[in-house]
Specification:
435 residues, alpha/beta, Rossmann fold, 6-stranded mixed β-sheet, binds pyridoxal-5'-phosphate, Thr_synthase-like
Length: 435
């Protein structure tokens, strides 16, 4: 597999290089030069394969010989060791539960695969890989739990004091082993500024092998294609082959992976990009003008993104042809009031509790159906996180139905530990050098 930069189509780097760099120096994003079609026979018979088998087929088609077959199979079995069931709500409506991994969010697919790919490429005796992450909540948990116990790696996670939910704090602070949590007396932006300064610091770079485990890393995108194929397989088993996916979108990595799956040959009829009022993409598809904005806080806070970092990848997949893109991608936005109404509607109709991000994807399906009453496709809305991660959003009667998963219960009895730091870079630097 060779990759180019979206800012330089002539650049060629290996998968390993792209994984450790995260981002090309020209600040573009890495994209595969070649997106080979999966063989038609595989798609025809996809319902006969398991999730790990599908994952191997897709990954090996893209990666070619970057990782030998047996190693890649073992890596996938270790990384994707939880289910992604498409739960049937009615004849034509399914919710794809992507929250059965350790951090209870779909980011586990990306983080677990990335950590194992990095560990695979680190040769014995190489310098320890030091991952630095700033988080406002969800990404940090997925990265911490994704790298937990992975040899030859160490993760330092910075989070703002008092700004993450109780479950997120548990996920960040109870790990021990190769994971350190740092509670910063400041905001998320302060955390991010500290990490950025560390990456730019010559002394730290001389001493440590630093990496960002950034959400735009190509090794996080690839494993997110797996569950689109696997869902198609689950529906095909039930005789449903016209499929629409609705994806709650913030940085557009998740739906970007869906569109990559489409380009690899997955016969999806339509993708719906569902956003909150941070609506740069729906506005672009309406007006043709791509205008980013500072983000606004909403109930679906993992989607509070005013400048979606993966959008350029999606434009590249469609060779910058907006008309072609619009044939496959529809986009709608919903505000907090609508989100809450959506949560209540899903509960009333299906007795199902959806997190606020998931509710937005559901609302988008309903809107699409209203606009296309003739369309009889099966619809799948992606549930990107477990409802228990957002306890403050729900009305009491719905909140009472939320079951706390085993993964969380297991953390509650563990001791919490976070090192506490201020917002000054010198303090953070000293902490890194001395610990
Ligand atoms: C990260 C996240 C999203 C947004 O996914 P993108 O790939 O950034 O579009 C949606 N829901 C939840 C719960 C998330 O954590």
């Amino acid at each position: 597999m060779k990759l180019y930069s979206t800012n330089n189509k002539d650049l060629r780097v290996s998968f390993k290089e792209a994984v450790f760099n995260s981002m090309p120096q020209d600040k573009g994003l890495y994209m595969p030069v070649e997106i080979p079609a999966l063989d038609a026979d595989f798609i025809q018979n996809i319902e006969k394969y398991s999730l790990p088998e599908i994952a191997y087929k897709v990954a090996s088609t893209l990666l070619k010989d970057e990782i030998p077959a047996d190693d890649l199979k073992a890596l996938i079995n270790d990384a994707i060791n939880f289910d992604a069931p498409a739960v049937k709500l009615d004849d034509k409506t399914f919710v794809l539960e992507l929250f059965h991994g350790p951090s209870l969010a779909f980011k586990d697919f990306g983080a677990r695969f990335m950590s194992r790919v990095m560990a695979y490429f680190l040769k014995d005796g190489e310098k320890l890989l030091d991952v630095l992450v700033a988080t406002s909540g969800d990404t940090g948990g997925a990265v911490a739990l994704g790298f937990l116990g992975v040899p030859n790696t160490r993760v330092t996670i910075l989070y703002p004091e008092g700004k993450v939910s109780p479950i997120q704090e548990l996920q960040l602070t109870t790990n021990g082993q190769n994971i350190r949590a740092v509670e910063v007396k400041g905001t998320f932006d302060d955390c991010q500024a500290l990490v950025k300064q560390a990456f730019a610091d010559a002394e730290l770079n001389a001493k440590f092998r630093l990496t960002s485990a950034n959400s735009i890393n190509i090794s996080r995108l690839i494993p997110q294609t797996f569950y689109y194929f696997n869902t198609y397989a689950q529906l095909k088993k039930q005789g449903l082959t016209d499929v629409i996916f609705s994806v709650p979108s913030g940085n557009f990595g998740n739906i970007g992976a869906g569109l990559l799956a489409y380009k690899l040959g997955l016969p999806v009829k339509q993708f719906i990009a569902a956003t909150n009022i941070n609506d740069t993409v729906p506005r672009f598809l309406e007006t043709g003008i791509y205008e980013t904005k500072p983000s606004t806080q909403t109930y679906s806070n993992a989607m509070d993104v005013g400048a979606p970092s993966n959008w350029v990848r999606i434009m590249n997949l469609f060779k910058e042809d907006v008309e072609e893109l619009k044939k496959v991608v529809t986009s709608y936005r919903f505000n907090d009031e609508e989100t809450l109404a959506g949560i209540k509607e899903i509960d009333a109709k299906f007795n199902y509790v959806a997190c606020p991000h998931t509710a937005i994807a559901y609302l988008a399906i309903e809107k699409f159906r209203k606009e296309h009453p003739e369309d009889q496709s099966a619809t799948v809305f992606l549930s990107t996180a477990h409802a228990c991660k957002f306890p403050d959003i729900f009305p009491q009667d719905i909140a009472a139905k939320i079951e706390i998963p085993e993964q969380v219960k297991a953390l509650e009895s563990k001791p919490k530990h976070a090192d506490k730091l201020g917002v000054d870079f010198e303090g953070f630097k000293r902490y890194l050098l001395e610990n």
